[in-house]
């Protein structure tokens, strides 16, 4: 029985290593400047793997080695304070060390201000779509109010028709088009329940909370279309709340914007 | 020291079926009642999970039979997305509250805490009876929510507002079902609160002579710490629940901000904050994780010592670590909210506190290994589950090192990585604690032995099964699969993970089916099991000094006197390889 447990634990370690190093299913390729994410993940993975394997194999080895068999005697050992202190200090240093290193990407996202040339886009979640709004040529968003929401007139976010700043606002549903290598500042809102903005390739996620404006910023470094799954349970259509992050060359972006503007 | 065994007046068991078995004030009967409540809930919760796993693996398959069973949720045999979410919500709620909170604490804690400290009952027997029946009512209301008009609640076990606060306009399941869900949990909070008060008072005041705090078995330390957590955490959930019900039916706006437009309807609320609920919920919710797992830690320590024939390695470090986990557990709730919109500065503090809670957890793991080291390990079914507990605790623990880092959580939050993590650490580990405790204490509770070969078969299926179910979830999370999706086929980048879903579903069906070995063993042994002796495991703690099952007042009117620590195994020079806590044998231990 001891041997069986030991073997199963060895198998567990082997399968874990294969699954986490074979990358049969893995992160989608990184498409943002948050390159520190993947480094921190790999560092954590290596340390965690060592701890995991030592603990599982240690368990398996002891269970096999100290199984009840003829001649086996238990020794009355109550503990070992030196070992306790050593072990405690070691794990404290490793875990807290990782925790401190683990603040870097967070600080880049939340404590660093976006560059001055960052473009602004507003994202407003609703059951079950993303409403996207660009400020237009004047660079200013028109004011919004719930009472102006009129879905039949495609005014999903309630742009005030009396505000001149809102006249040139450009809107889009579920398609967030941005130029590549351009810092982008996203203003997240929700008009009904909590949703969450998640682009796996960017390595960021942020809830869109009703009543709040939450800013995230990033720079996409690869052109292409990337899915935006809603990451916070928002009701029965949560699983099909799908946006597209459409990263284009600056020219293609400008063309798209002009086309959208002419359709408004 | 004969004069020390102060005689207490002997309690006689009440006569009459109702006072004896239904509205009993005997902690042992109440413990068994809690256990059966949990058993009912775990079977229901597991069946719900098998249903939604079927849908995840074969989203377009037609289940005619299920269509007949659930004419609205699976009309024509196809599961609706709202029914899927309801199943997930009810699975989580039943498991977290009515299984993981009741069986380890209300069940085993109730039955064994008084006996292990040498008391003839809980401090407040009537209160104890009330806590069970209040919990029972809460379960009844929760089952009603499952069948509520307008659909079962589907906001998840965390029930984030505004979704859970807006009522019918925000979709199916947000009507009566959601209201009943909150009311049920509010009732549950009251029951748990009363139970916690009772446990704390009993531990502090009713210990037998000689049962100093540092002679208490680690199970008692675990139940005691858990009770303190319950006492401080449940009132906060209760308050949150009351506010949420008021938002739904009283027109208040605690959690609903101004200017919402839901399904094209202007919402007439203003001034609330969705984040307020998250703070209240997780201020409770994180300690709740420890409420579920600490008793399992106590049981694992007890079993590893008993079946290795060794003292628990570092006994003082062990209960200190539990106290540290309990204490720190109140300062880490914000790690559930890194991406919620909470201040990113407080997130840093929560992150470091979260990682520091890994330290006492690591101490425990180290000491469990130390307990096995140089032991003489006997592989009973109970021991197998204790060994399994250590393994799944490690697996579930190390993934927390990823999630506790603010940066890494940016991607992993709300993915299957989290689902894998908390199922391992909170679900599976706690369940292994419950199984281990069942195999270990069944003889004492019911006077009969469980069947060992069946127990071992049960262990192997379960241990391999849970790894097969939950390990792939971590990989799916790394690949970015969001949780709570009833169907992943709308997203291109998720399509490659479908085989994993199918694998996990097959594993879940096999593992769930293997639980029949347990149920069969349990009920068969209840009637037909071999008669149990007083101390079948040659264990040391006080419950093994009384008959199996113990008499109504536990010690037959004569409370024990404790002379030894809880885990005196293989003491050199002792007559046997164990010394009972109340033994008059004295052995001079050489260091």
Topology:
The complex is a heterodimer of chains A (264) and B (591).
Chain A: H1 2-22, H2 36-65, H3 81-101, H4 104-110, E1 119-126, E2 129-134, E3 170-173, E4 175-179, E5 183-190, E6 195-199, E7 204-208, E8 214-219, E9 224-229, E10 242-248, H5 250-263
Parallel strand pairs in A: 1-5, 4-10
Antiparallel strand pairs in A: 1-2, 2-3, 5-8, 6-7, 9-10
Helix pairs in contact in A: 1-2
Chain B: H1 17-22, H2 27-57, H3 64-69, H4 81-100, H5 102-117, H6 125-146, H7 176-205, H8 218-249, E1 261-262, E2 265-266, H9 274-308, H10 315-328, H11 344-356, H12 358-372, H13 381-403, H14 406-412, H15 416-446, H16 452-478, H17 498-528
Antiparallel strand pairs in B: 1-2
Helix pairs in contact in B: 2-4, 2-5, 2-6, 2-17, 4-5, 4-6, 5-7, 5-8, 5-15, 6-7, 7-8, 8-9, 8-10, 9-12, 9-13, 9-15, 10-12, 12-13, 13-15, 13-16, 15-16, 16-17
Tally of DSSP helical segments of chain B = 17
Strand-residue proportion of chain B:
under 5%
Q: Output mean pLDDT of chain A.
A: 96
Strand order of the largest sheet of chain B: 1-2
Rg calc of chain B: 24 Å
Strands in their spatial order, largest beta sheet of chain A? 3-2-1-5-8
Averaged pLDDT of chain B: 95
One letter per element, helices H and strands E, the order of chain B comes to HHHHHHHHEEHHHHHHHHH
How helix-rich are the residues of chain A, as a percent range?
Answer: 25-40%
Kindly state the number of beta strands of chain B.
2
Q: Which radius of gyration of chain A do the C-alpha atoms yield?
A: 26 Å
Global outline of chain B: globular
* Amino- and carboxy-terminal Cα gap of chain B: 27 Å
Question: What profile does the largest beta sheet of chain A have?
Answer: 5 strands, mixed
Strand content of chain A: 15-25%
Poorly predicted runs of 5 or more residues of chain B:
1-8
Distance between the termini of chain A: 73 Å
H-E order of chain A: HHHHEEEEEEEEEEH
């Amino acid at each position: 029985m001891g041997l069986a447990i030991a073997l199963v634990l060895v198998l567990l370690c082997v399968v874990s290593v294969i699954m986490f190093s074979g990358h049969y299913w893995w992160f989608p390729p990184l498409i943002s400047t948050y390159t520190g994410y993947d480094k921190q993940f790999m560092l954590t993975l290596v340390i965690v793997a060592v701890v995991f394997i030592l603990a599982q194999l240690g368990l398996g080895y002891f269970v096999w080695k100290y199984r009840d068999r003829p001649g086996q005697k238990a020794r009355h050992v109550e503990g070992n304070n030196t070992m306790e202190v050593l072990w405690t200090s070691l794990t404290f240093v490793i875990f807290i060390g990782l925790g401190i290193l683990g603040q870097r990407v967070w600080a880049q996202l939340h404590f660093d201000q976006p560059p001055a040339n960052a473009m602004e886009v507003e994202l407003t979640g609703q059951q079950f779509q993303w409403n996207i709004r660009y400020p237009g040529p004047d660079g200013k968003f028109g004011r919004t109010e719930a009472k102006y929401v009129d879905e039949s007139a495609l005014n999903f976010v309630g742009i005030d028709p009396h505000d001149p700043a809102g006249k040139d606002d450009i809107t889009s549903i579920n398609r967030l088009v941005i130029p590549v290598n351009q810092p982008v500042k996203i203003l997240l809102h929700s008009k009904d329940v909590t949703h969450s903005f998640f682009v796996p390739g960017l390595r960021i996620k942020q809830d869109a909370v009703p009543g709040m404006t939450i800013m995230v910023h990033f720079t996409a470094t690869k052109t292409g279309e990337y899915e935006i799954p809603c990451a916070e349970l928002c009701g029965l259509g949560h699983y099909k709340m799908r946006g597209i992050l459409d990263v284009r060359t600056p020219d293609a972006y400008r063309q798209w914007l002009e086309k959208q503007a002419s359709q408004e | 020291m004969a004069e020390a065994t102060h005689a207490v007046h002997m309690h006689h068991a009440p006569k009459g079926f109702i006072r004896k078995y239904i509205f009993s004030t005997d902690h042992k009967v109440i413990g068994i009642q809690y256990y059966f409540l949990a058993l009912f809930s775990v079977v229901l919760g597991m069946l719900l999970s098998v249903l939604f796993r079927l849908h995840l693996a074969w989203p377009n398959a037609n289940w005619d039979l299920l269509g007949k069973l659930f004419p609205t949720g699976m009309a024509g045999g196809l599961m609706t997305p709202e029914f899927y979410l309801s199943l997930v919500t009810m699975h989580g709620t039943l498991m977290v509250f009515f299984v993981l909170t009741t069986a380890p604490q209300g069940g085993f804690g109730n039955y064994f805490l008084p006996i292990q400290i040498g008391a003839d009952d809980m401090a407040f027997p009537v209160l104890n009876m009330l806590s069970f029946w209040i919990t029972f009512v809460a379960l009844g209301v929760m089952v009603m929510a499952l069948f509520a008009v307008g659909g079962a609640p589907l906001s998840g076990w965390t029930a984030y507002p505004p979704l859970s606060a807006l009522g019918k306009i925000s979709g199916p399941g947000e009507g009566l079902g959601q209201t009943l869900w909150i009311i049920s949990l509010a009732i549950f909070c009251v029951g748990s609160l009363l139970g916690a008060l009772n446990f704390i008072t009993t531990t502090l005041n009713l210990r037998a002579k000689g049962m100093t705090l540092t002679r208490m078995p680690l199970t008692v330390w675990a139940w005691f710490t858990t009770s303190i957590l319950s006492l401080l955490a449940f009132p906060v959930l209760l308050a949150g629940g009351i506010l949420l019900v008021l938002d739904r039916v009283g027109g208040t706006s605690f959690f609903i901000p101004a200017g919402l437009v839901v399904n094209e309807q202007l919402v007439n609320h203003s001034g609330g904050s969705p984040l307020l609920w998250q703070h209240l919920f997780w201020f409770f919710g994180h300690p709740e994780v420890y409420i579920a797992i600490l008793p399992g830690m106590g049981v694992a320590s007890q079993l590893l010592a008993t079946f290795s024939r060794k003292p628990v390695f570092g006994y003082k470090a062990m209960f200190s670590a539990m106290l540290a986990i309990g204490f720190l557990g109140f300062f880490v709730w914000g790690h559930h909210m890194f991406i919620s919109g909470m201040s990113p500065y407080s997130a840093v503090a929560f992150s470091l506190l979260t990682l520091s809670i890994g330290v006492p957890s690591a101490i425990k793991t180290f000491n469990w290994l130390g307990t096995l080291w140089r032991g003489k390990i006997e592989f009973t079914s109970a021991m197998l589950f204790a060994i399994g507990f250590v393994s799944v605790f490690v697996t579930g623990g190390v993934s927390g090192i990823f999630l506790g880092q603010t940066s890494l959580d940016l991607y992993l939050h709300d993915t299957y990585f989290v689902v894998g993590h908390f199922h391992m650490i909170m679900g599976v580990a706690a369940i292994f604690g419950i199984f281990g405790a069942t195999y270990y204490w069944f003889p004492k509770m019911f006077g009969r032995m469980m069947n060992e070969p069946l127990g071992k078969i049960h262990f192997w299926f379960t241990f391999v099964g849970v790894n097969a179910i939950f390990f792939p979830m971590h990989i799916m999370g790394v690949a970015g699969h969001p949780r709570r999706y009833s169907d992943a086929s709308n997203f291109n980048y998720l399509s490659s993970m479908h085989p994993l879903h199918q694998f996990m579903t097959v594993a879940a069906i096999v593992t769930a089916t293997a639980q029949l070995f347990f149920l069969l063993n349990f009920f068969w042994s209840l009637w037909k099991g071999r008669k149990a002796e007083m101390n079948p495991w040659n264990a040391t703690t006080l419950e093994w000094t009384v008959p199996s099952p113990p008499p109504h007042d536990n010690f037959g009117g004569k409370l024990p006197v404790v002379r030894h620590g809880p885990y005196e195994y293989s003491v050199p020079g002792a007559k046997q390889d164990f010394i009972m806590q109340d033994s008059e044998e004295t052995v001079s231990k050489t260091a």
